[in-house]
């Protein structure tokens, strides 16, 4: 028998790298924050607004780009997106006024908007259902690698060469990735050099999806489904913690714990290492449960509930004076967040028609990233007024608890709730 190729995992390696670069570019502002605040005379509130500005455009663009990737395909969408956000990232290096910095962050948000809807499209097209949990876990791990593991490197660049150079270096990485993407990636497995056996393997678990190719679901039709509302709030809850840590952790360690920037950079690694582990464990756990006979929705629900509930560990972290204990608790919360996040995208392929996954992922990412408008600004405002980060962290924990309750009691599969059938059944033609 001819050996099956593994082109799909080469494709997914590009997705992983794109996600890592995406979050490296986002987190650069947090690492450079203390230096930028000093050089440009920015207050905590102003820095919070600057961190939030990225999400203004990023969030608003989720709906149109979700539908766009379904129409244009992943190859063209990702090419334009990565070039756009990389140039905007580099543009920050030559910007000095507060207003111009906001403008660059807004432009960067537009460029990064298609990333996760495109990832969802690629995973749906290139992987069978039983491999999507692992793939989404690896994709989430890319977030941790970019935002956390590279933090000491970015901190060293800022300390050695200045904050401006850090934005140039991280922007160039995106442009280099684009070259590899154009050389390697094709929109469909059958357009690539994947073997016939691999293509058949990929298609083997997509039979139910294939009959739904003409579903033509509009985004507002998804809002009729309770499952969708649970997913929308659940991602909002996870993202609130994610974006609080992403935009404030190194600055928090410098300002509240009085670390040097380099030391803060190294101490910022631990939460992201645990987050990366959580992402892989979450993806593999749900895939394992499915193989053991659990329905896909039940498997995802279990992991989503446990992971989101662990985010609430951020609450005791707010009250401890011990730096090691605070970092440990923050790390557990981040690990839980990624445990859940590895499944929040995989479940879309289980409840949406195949040709509308980009649309639903755009809607989900839109709601999730509203937290990016709120978390950085609220955190900066509370830290400035209260001279500590306690209430800001507690708020993130409470939001997560509500999300866990939603997953546990309101995310249902078809057998559990006959009156709330899957979207794929209701809208397929």
From TrEMBL:
Domain Major facilitator superfamily (MFS) profile: residue ranges: 11-415
GO cellular component: plasma membrane
Main localization category: membrane
Regions annotated as coiled coil: none
Cross-referenced InterPro entries: MFS, MFS_dom, MFS_Na/Anion_cotransporter, MFS_trans_sf, Sugar_P_transporter
The keyword Repeat is annotated on this UniProt entry: no
Keywords, sorted A to Z: Cell membrane, Membrane, Transmembrane, Transmembrane helix, Transport
Keyword Translocase carried by entry: no
Alphabetical list of SUPFAM superfamilies matching this protein: MFS general substrate transporter (SSF103473)
Organism of origin: Heyndrickxia ginsengihumi
Location of the protein in the cell: Cell membrane
Name listed for the protein in its UniProt record: MFS transporter
Pfam families documented for this protein: MFS_1 (PF07690)
TM region(s), chain numbering: 7-24, 44-61, 137-158, 164-185, 228-249, 269-290, 302-319, 325-348, 360-383, 389-410
Gene Ontology terms for molecular function: transmembrane transporter activity
Membrane topology: Multi-pass membrane protein
Signal peptide span: none
């Amino acid at each position: 028998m001819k050996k099956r190729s593994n082109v799909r995992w080469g494709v997914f390696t590009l997705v992983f790298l794109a996600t890592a670069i995406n979050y490296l570019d986002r987190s650069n502002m947090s690492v450079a924050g203390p230096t930028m605040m000093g050089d440009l005379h920015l207050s905590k509130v102003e820095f919070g607004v600057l961190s939030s500005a990225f999400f203004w455009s990023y969030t608003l663009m989720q709906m149109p780009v979700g539908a766009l990737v379904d129409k244009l395909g992943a190859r063209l969408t990702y090419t334009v997106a990565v070039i756009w956000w990389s140039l905007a990232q580099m543009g920050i290096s030559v910007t000095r006024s507060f207003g111009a910095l906001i403008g660059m962050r807004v432009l960067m948000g537009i460029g990064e908007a298609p990333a996760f809807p495109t990832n969802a499209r690629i995973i749906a097209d290139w992987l069978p259902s039983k491999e999507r949990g692992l793939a989404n876990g690896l994709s989430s791990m890319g977030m941790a690698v970019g935002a956390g593991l590279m933090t000491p490197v970015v901190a060293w660049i800022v300390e050695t060469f200045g904050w401006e150079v850090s934005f140039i270096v991280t922007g160039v990485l995106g442009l280099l990735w684009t070259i590899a993407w154009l050389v390697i990636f094709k929109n469909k497995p059958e357009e690539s050099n994947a073997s016939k056996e691999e293509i058949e393997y990929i298609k083997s678990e997509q039979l139910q999806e294939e009959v739904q190719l003409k579903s033509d679901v509009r985004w507002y039709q998804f809002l009729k489904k309770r499952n969708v509302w649970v997913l929308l709030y659940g991602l909002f809850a996870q993202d609130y913690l994610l974006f609080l840590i992403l935009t404030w952790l190194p600055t928090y360690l410098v300002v509240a714990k009085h670390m040097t920037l380099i030391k803060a950079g190294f101490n910022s690694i631990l939460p992201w290492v645990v987050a990366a582990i959580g992402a892989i464990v979450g993806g593999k756990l749900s895939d394992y449960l499915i193989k053991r006979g659990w329905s896909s929705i039940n498997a995802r629900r279990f992991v989503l509930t446990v992971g989101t509930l662990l985010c609430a560990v951020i609450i005791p972290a707010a009250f401890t004076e011990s730096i090691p204990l605070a970092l440990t608790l923050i790390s557990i919360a981040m690990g839980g967040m990624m445990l859940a996040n590895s499944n929040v995208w995989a479940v879309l392929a289980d409840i949406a028609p195949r040709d509308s996954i980009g649309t639903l992922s755009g809607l989900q990412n839109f709601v999730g990233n509203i937290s990016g408008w709120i978390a950085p600004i609220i955190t900066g405002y509370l830290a400035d007024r209260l001279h500590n980060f306690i209430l800001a962290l507690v708020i993130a924990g409470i939001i997560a608890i509500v999300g866990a309750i939603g997953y546990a009691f309101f995310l249902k599969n078809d057998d559990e709730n006959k009156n709330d059938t899957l979207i794929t059944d209701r809208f397929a033609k």
